[in-house]
Specification:
With 325 residues, the chain is an alpha/beta fold. It contains twelve helices and ten strands. It folds into two domains: 167 residues, Bordetella uptake gene, domain 1 (D-Maltodextrin-Binding Protein, domain 2); 99 residues, Periplasmic binding protein-like II (D-Maltodextrin-Binding Protein, domain 2, 3-Layer(aba) Sandwich). It is globular, with a radius of gyration of 21 Å.
């Protein structure tokens, strides 16, 4: 019996030593942030904004790896299947952490809180309802009237079927009793490109990717989907002010790692991300495009995600959104 006890103690001690040694050498090679959408969208912009500062704090370069498709499922699964060694991070949105859990019926592609370890949010943002300038509507009321006169003839893009931007469109169609054709893309970036080019008529889109085009007049903003007006665009009314209070949403952008990533590495990454978001230049760059930089502890972020899944689940059920796999 004593031999077995000593052997168990030796194994435990060796494990602790190995963990400590791993922590002391981490990170010793480039760290990859998987962005599960095409380049040019808000998630991509966020990852590339925080990457240089994280490199300064951690040492090795931060590499952004765009894996767009299937409303982020392709990129999320790539991150989940990566070794839990701290060298692969996932840049998430509410679509990735929450909506994909509730739009695939009883067969979600993964379980966020089982397969991933939350680190912290990086920022929260709201969306704008925008149109190509060739559209005659100048207000949301005018747009709804136009959509009623042209059922299914107006096209709205999104970052993918079942994502937050698609949900926004579904909310508007339900609230205003209109029919608009949904055109899914592999990310907000390509959708915005087609919007500016006039290939689609409009879209719901998060502030970080669309702000420059609103300011330059290349798109027309009708309303913001937050409860209060945006401090960055105070002249744009909220959806509630425009007459559609049921069209309200915000999006959370955060970082997670594969489940079973060692706690000391999670702590090291969390510390670096929090310091990065607190860096004045990073905060200014995020706020400049209309984002609200925020961080949480891993435990707080996990609780937030759980609540977010419940919120989007209710919306998915009421809107009847189900994705076939």
């Amino acid at each position: 019996m004593r031999t077995h006890i000593n052997l168990a103690a030796a194994v435990a001690a060796a494990s602790l030593v190995a963990t400590g040694a791993h922590s002391q050498t981490y990170p010793s090679k480039p760290i990859r942030i998987v962005v599960p959408f095409a380049a040019g969208g808000p998630a991509d912009i966020t990852a590339r904004t925080i990457g240089p500062r994280m490199t300064e704090l951690l040492g090795p370069p931060i590499i952004v790896d765009n894996r767009g498709g299937a409303n982020g499922v392709i990129g999320a699964e790539a991150a989940i299947k990566s070794p839990p060694d701290g060298y692969t991070l996932l840049m998430s949105t509410s679509s990735i952490t929450s909506i994909n859990m509730v739009t695939y019926g009883d067969r979600p592609p993964y379980d966020t809180l089982r397969d991933l370890q939350p680190l912290t949010p990086v920022m929260f943002t709201t969306s704008l309802i925008v149109l190509h300038p060739s559209m005659p509507a100048k207000t949301l009321k005018e747009f709804v009237a136009l959509a009623k006169a042209r059922p299914n003839q107006i096209t709205f893009g999104s970052a993918g079927t079942g994502g937050t931007l698609h949900f926004g469109l579904e909310m508007l169609m339900r609230e205003a009793s209109v029919k608009i054709t949904h055109v899914p893309f592999k990310g907000a970036g390509p959708a915005v490109t087609d919007l500016i080019g006039g290939q689609i008529n409009g879209m719901f889109v998060d502030l970080p990717v669309i702000s420059p085009y609103v300011k330059s007049g290349r798109v027309r903003a009708l309303a913001v989907t937050s409860r209060e007006r945006s401090q960055y665009f105070p002249e744009i009314p909220t959806t509630k002010e425009a007459g559609y209070p049921g069209v309200e949403m915000t999006n959370c952008y955060g970082l997670l790692v594969p489940a079973k990533t060692p706690r000391d590495i999670v702590a090291k990454l969390h510390d670096a991300i929090v310091k990065t978001v607190a860096t004045q230049s990073v905060r200014e760059n995020l706020m400049r495009v209309g984002a609200d930089p925020q961080t949480m502890s891993p435990e707080e972020f996990a609780r937030f995600i759980k609540g977010d899944i419940e919120k989007w689940g209710k919306l998915a059920k009421s809107a009847g959104i189900v994705i076939e796999r």
